[in-house]
């Protein structure tokens, strides 16, 4: 339970920090939002609880989530050029992410794409 609270606090602090930077330097906040804070924080806790095997399993699947995030960002950028309302832009990014992850899961299960 305590570990979950620590994770929640760390994750929340990172999001708040990036949000505060946005007011002073929107460009910098965009770069900071790409920092793999969740990945690295999770990596520490997974190593502590599961060792090298847990880290290996986590990292081999995390790469697909990171690639999906890239496509979600690209989809979001395209949606902003279309002048869609912001809720639609966010929904489009989530749909792109979900489709990519779904395809990666199906192909991985069929051994069409390798895991590391």
Major β-sheet annotation: none
Structural class determined from secondary elements:
mainly alpha
Query: What's the multimeric state?
Result: single chain
Strand content: under 5%
Helix content: over 70%
Termini distance?
31 Å
Mean pLDDT: 80
Rounded radius of gyration (Å) = 17 Å
Shape: flat
Order of helices and strands: HHHH
* DSSP summary: helix tally: 4
Q: What is the count of β-strands? A: 0
Report the uncertain regions.
none
How is this structure best described in words?
Helix content is 86%, strand content 0%. It contains 4 helices and no strands. Helix 3 packs across helix 4 (86-109). The mean pLDDT is 80.
Topology:
Layout lengths: L1 H23 L1 H8 L3 H45 L4 H24 L7
Features:
single chain; 116 residues; mainly alpha; 4 helices; flat
Please sum up the structure shown:
By secondary structure, the protein is an all-alpha fold. The protein is 86% helix and 0% strand. The model has no long low-confidence stretch (mean pLDDT 80).
